[in-house]
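#struct-help
A.M.: can someone run this one for me? Single chain, 210 residues.
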Amino acid sequence: MPVLLCFGDSNTHGTPPMSARGEVRRLGPEARWPRVAAAALPGWEVVEEGLPGRTAQFADPVMGAHMDGRTGLRIALESHGPLDALAIMLGTNDVKARFAPSPERVTAGIAALLDIALCDEMQARHGGFRVLVICPPPVLEGGPFAGEFLGAQAVSRALAPLYRALAEARGCGFLDAGRTIAASAVDAIHFDAEAHRRLGETVAAAIRAL
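D.P.: on it. Structure tokens below:
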């Protein structure tokens, strides 16, 4: 049975749009996009590795050093498998104001994750696997997290072409999620259940095309 690892942040975890800070909720298993993708990939095993607050490259001074996706990806790749495909969707938390983001800096974090995933050690460990780079939809500015994401909309809107160029240079698949879904207007960051459904179906098609 082929195995797909979905690696991301709260939008891979299944956190729904939040009307107030401090809410701790999660969409049901069948509503989350990795499980939607699993339903559209008969015969595949799909592993969910979504951590709310995870970044591609930063040890968050507020949420903790374990939010650095580079460490998390190594752990995930050594915990699961053998893998046939890896889908990475990160970058939303990297555009928080406290990280002084730029499109190039955020993309550099994704490049570091690809360095880990595509290194000889990890590829040999799993017998070779393909990677799908997913650019998350742009964040909006508003809702309960507006202060943390001040100026983030402009940065996140510039990510898709950079992610695409990086994926092509590294021989990976690419998906611009912003062409399929948008962040909820409720909190400007997270996806509602319908967006999860559409994203899961789109990811499944992209995995089949790898």
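A.M.: thanks! Residues 193-209 form the longest helix (17 residues).
D.P.: also worth noting: The two ends are 16 Å apart (CA to CA).
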